[in-house]
Amino acid sequence: MQSNINDFHEYAVVDLGSNSFHMVIAKKVNNALQVIYKHKQNVHLATGLNHDFQLSETSICRGVACLAMFAERLKDFPVSHIKVVGTYTLRVAKNRYQFLLEAAKVFPYPIEIISGQEEARLIYIGAINTESVAKSDVKFVIDVGGGSTEIAIGTGSTPTLVESRPMGCVTYAKQFFPKQTISRPLFERACFAAEQQVEKMIKLVKSKNITVAFGASGTIKSIYSILLDLGVSDGIITPNRLDDLVSYILEFKHFSDIDYPSLSDERKAVFVSGLAIFYGVFKAFGIKELHYTQSALREGLLYEMTEDNKSLQDICQKTIDTLFKQYRIDEQHANQVAQTAKHLFKQWKKQTTVTLDPILESILYWSALLHEIGLSINFSGIHKHSAYILQNSNMPGFNEEQQFLLSTLVRYHRKGLKIESIPYFSLFETKQIYPLLQILRLAVLINNQRSSTLDPHVFTLAIMDNDPCKFQLTLDQQFAQHNRLVVLDLEQEQLYWQQNKPWQLHIKID
């Protein structure tokens, strides 16, 4: 490991896709990124996904073996210079934690599972920051992956529309071309299925008046390359050229028969299904021309990791602000709870040796701000309603576990709980999660009376026995005398904690 992280100028991104695992390493030279290493391994993770969304042992072993090889190249990298993300197959696999646990044995870096919308956002950022486009252009970006297809549209640096659909070249190959035979009826069925996946978007996409379109991924790269093989000098994909290409492909009887110089044997196994998806979407949206871009998810990750250390945090904060306004949350009360959480957390942090990523501290404050987001549904069961909204909202900037942690904190911020019910997280430890939840519960409870004049400094938090989950909360005596309901609430909270070892709450009035 490098002794001084500031002297380390290489950054690595690993993309655990449904078809292939990719590793890209770039070096920062004079504030510009230079790619110095790329490696692609065809893992075909999605082929091991059965109808019950369980990954097979064989596919898990293939993925883990690939990561073990990647780990050899990354052994000298600081963790902060590595970003590893999983996409569609790891999103939907019910036994993904089995994969993550096995991977952790050979690959000592955190693996983040990102939502389809977050993937689409990153693909858009990767494309527009490497292609020459005008600020005024309405930009359309599509990526046909192994298990899902991502679509993003925007005019500026941030897309205004991001969508992900569960259709990919690997999954469609299994579904529509199980014997790898090619026929017009099979191809049309796959195209129609792709159109159905986007039919509710068609009117909205067409209303955006797209001025420039880009396509990323192996499928679109193959289409672009075959057009070059056929003598199309600029490689631009147009409706007529795409029609011609489909006609050429349908002349073959089997995947292995397809014979173009640029199409590898590996790509042949998924090209027809990927072409069907792209053709269906291209026609449904009425795209006039589309340019292939080499930049997508991995470049988007690199850009955000190196451009500005605060940029991702700013995106997350903007997401929180949008939800705050959308659900018309009581600003004064939410800020009061957040300030109380900050006051308690600051004291806890000074006394513990538990290390926290800055994002965890932010998630605590955001959970305090949004704990009443479900009030728009009903006060009864508000913690459940709030958690549901947060778990199922599109939240740019958050990976899946960060979003899940936010919703989990809010889910258990009030009433009785069993800590056994708190789900497992691969990126965070219980010794990090429990104190955040304990602090949030206290911050909400202390502000139950919704007093705008409450001073959080009348509460002092101390850790007992060097245990980060054992709290002593000292109340100012004068405050306790005039706020007996708060004291009663704290006594009830004390009983809840007693039922959940190792939690402990001691209340002291001084």
UniProtKB/TrEMBL annotation:
Residues 316-494 form the Ppx/GppA phosphatase C-terminal domain. Residues 24-306 form the Ppx/GppA phosphatase N-terminal domain. The keyword Protease does not apply. Keywords: Hydrolase. It holds the Pfam family Ppx-GppA. The keyword rRNA-binding does not apply. It comes from the Bacteria. This is Exopolyphosphatase.
